[in-house]
């Protein structure tokens, strides 16, 4: 059996460099979940009274539900004002009495307030940009010693938790900096806080946020800077001490004037970076030369198609498309999306065999289990059916249930290993792959250089044989055919079973939509004759989206933030969800 080996930290860094350089030298897909805040950008403008004028830009993908809402937790004399919402730059209309139980149609194009909630209609499914503006008076608090902002911009375990967040705090009348007496700390996530050159504060995450993260900011402000009416009967130091509990920050460092976590480590890091700069440049040059060798032996799909321009193959050069998984994995840039493509192909194959059927309710697709695959069915199909059986409820498999199961790395890897093991056995049987050591013994000098680089960059001890490269070429020519058959003299090929197989290949190659579009033109009767359309009007689109969503679920004075801490005091605008 074959496994993609685990990589060391340094190999991971070098492979990351390789990917970046490869894209730069030769030249990419984001899949959205059913209700997801992809990005959140928050800008806070402060006025002389300590009022915050807040603008939040949310990039949201949703294909169900009727509204989005966020909650506010105001403290003391804080009050809400100037509330408005727009979608894709178009202002929405305010509803005075917001009804969260109203229909999607009633909420479309409208926003309102329900108690401590700010609500607005999803309006249109798909990916859209929402801009939420509001003001909070007395946002700045005056302690017995200093002023501060103590605010939670995102609560933990909320549906609106974005993948990425960026926060900017600014005041046109004040320049924020450590030298001017300001401090900044972030809690609940991995990221950075910093004073930029324009006297603003920037906060960003460095790792994708998840439900366990929260985003809380504590900002130190010199006493008397703002004319706020919010006064606390405690010192700023006591707030800091409470916030630092359970965090990575050290209260004694703060007391001695340090605002940056791991201050010594950061200084050492900069020295090391400076010392290694020249070595790094030389290394990059060496790496670029190696990548060129590697790219000659293992070109990307676009280059392979260009090399085979005008050449077509009408054959799936295996018993089934799943036997070719390993061949495709040797095409650079293909591995990241390959598992998703083959999951789509496997679901369609189970539909074709009568093991499952697809149903669509309110534009949401799910699968219904019918019967187990035959014992001689390809192992990946049997493994996938077993997974579907584990998550079914009343024989129904929903996208959310399968996503939850496969979001555990071990479950996802176990399934993808079934594809790679099955294909690897086929490739070894027919001598389509061989060990890198064997390849180095028989190839010419140029090929040996490329193989050494491929072995190191891919962290894989197997390479394509000459016969394997021929099969790769046939796959490329098959893709050429599937992408261009409507332009060729192929309008007389109307054998439904053949096109059913071609659609499986199109799924594995990630071109289902292109092939379906052409097929509708040259063979419009296919939709009435194919088994895929028995229970769905759009089987390929819905299956591809289903797979994509599932696969996606299965990524002080500045400095690092802390993953914990923050204390329990302060207001919040970070709760919320979807309805």
From TrEMBL:
Q: Does tRNA-binding appear among the keywords?
A: no
Q: Where is the DUF2207 domain?
A: 37-178
Q: Which InterPro entries match?
A: DUF2207, YciQ-like_C
- Annotated Predicted membrane protein YciQ-like C-terminal domain ranges read 463-519
Where does the source fall among the domains of life?
Answer: Bacteria
Tell me which UniProt keywords the record has, alphabetically: Membrane, Transmembrane, Transmembrane helix
Record-annotated membrane-spanning stretches: 268-291
Region (Disordered): which ranges?
557-579
Supply the name of the protein.
Answer: DUF2207 domain-containing protein
């Amino acid at each position: 059996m074959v496994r993609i080996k685990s990589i060391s930290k340094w190999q991971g860094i070098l492979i990351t460099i390789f990917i970046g350089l490869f894209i730069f030298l030769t030249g990419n897909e984001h899949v959205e979940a059913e209700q997801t805040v992809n990005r959140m950008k928050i800008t806070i403008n402060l006025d002389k009274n300590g009022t915050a004028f807040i603008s939040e830009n949310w990039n949201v993908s949703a294909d169900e539900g009727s509204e989005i809402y966020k909650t506010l937790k105001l403290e003391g004399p804080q009050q809400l004002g100037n509330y408005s919402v727009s979608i894709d730059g178009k202002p929405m209309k305010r509803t005075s009495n917001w009804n969260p139980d109203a229909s999607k149609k009633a909420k479309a194009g409208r926003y309102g307030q329900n108690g401590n909630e700010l609500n607005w209609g999803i309006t249109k499914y798909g990916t859209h940009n929402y801009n939420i503006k509001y003001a909070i008076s007395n946002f700045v608090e005056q302690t017995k010693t200093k002023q501060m902002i103590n605010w939670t911009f995102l609560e933990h375990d909320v549906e609106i938790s974005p993948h990425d967040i960026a926060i900017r705090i600014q005041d046109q009348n004040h320049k924020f900096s450590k030298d001017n007496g300001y401090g900044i700390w972030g809690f609940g996530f991995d990221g950075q806080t910093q004073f930029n050159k324009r006297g603003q504060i920037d906060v960003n995450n460095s790792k994708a946020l998840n439900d366990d993260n929260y985003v809380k900011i504590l900002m130190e402000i010199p006493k008397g800077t703002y004319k706020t009416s919010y006064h606390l009967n405690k010192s700023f130091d006591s707030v800091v001490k409470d916030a630092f509990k359970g965090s990575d920050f050290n209260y004694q460092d703060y007391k001695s004037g340090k605002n940056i976590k791991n201050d010594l480590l950061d200084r050492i890091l900069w020295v090391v970076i400076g010392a290694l700069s020249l070595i790094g440049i030389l290394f990059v040059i060496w790496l670029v030369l190696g990548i060129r060798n590697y790219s000659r032996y293992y070109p990307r799909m676009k280059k392979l198609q260009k090399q085979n321009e005008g050449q077509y193959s009408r054959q799936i050069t295996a018993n089934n498309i799943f036997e070719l998984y390993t061949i495709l994995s040797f095409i650079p840039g293909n591995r990241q999306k390959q598992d998703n493509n083959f999951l789509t192909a496997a679901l369609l194959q189970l539909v074709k065999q009568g093991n499952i059927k697809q149903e669509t309710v309110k534009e949401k697709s799910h699968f219904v289990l019918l019967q187990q695959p035959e014992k001689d069915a390809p192992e990946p199909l049997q493994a996938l059916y077993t997974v579907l059986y584990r998550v079914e409820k009343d024989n129904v498999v929903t996208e959310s249930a399968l996503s939850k199961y496969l979001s555990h790395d071990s479950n996802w890897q176990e399934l993808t290993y079934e594809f790679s093991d099955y294909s690897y056995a086929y490739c070894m049987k027919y001598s389509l792959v061989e060990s890198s050591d064997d390849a180095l013994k028989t190839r010419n000098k140029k090929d040996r250089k490329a193989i050494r680089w491929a072995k190191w960059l891919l962290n894989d001890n197997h390479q394509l044989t000459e016969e394997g490269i021929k099969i790769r070429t046939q796959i490329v020519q098959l893709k050429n055919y599937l992408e261009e058959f409507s332009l060729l003299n192929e309008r007389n090929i109307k054998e439904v079973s053949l096109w059913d197989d071609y659609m499986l290949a199109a799924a594995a190659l990630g071109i289902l939509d292109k092939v379906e579009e052409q097929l509708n033109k040259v063979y419009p009767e296919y939709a009435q004759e194919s088994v895929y359309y028995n229970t769905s009007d759009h089987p390929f689109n819905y299956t591809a989206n289903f797979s994509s969503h599932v696969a996606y679920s299965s990524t002080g004075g500045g400095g690092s933030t802390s993953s914990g801490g923050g204390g329990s005091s302060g207001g919040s605008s970070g709760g919320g969800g979807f309805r």
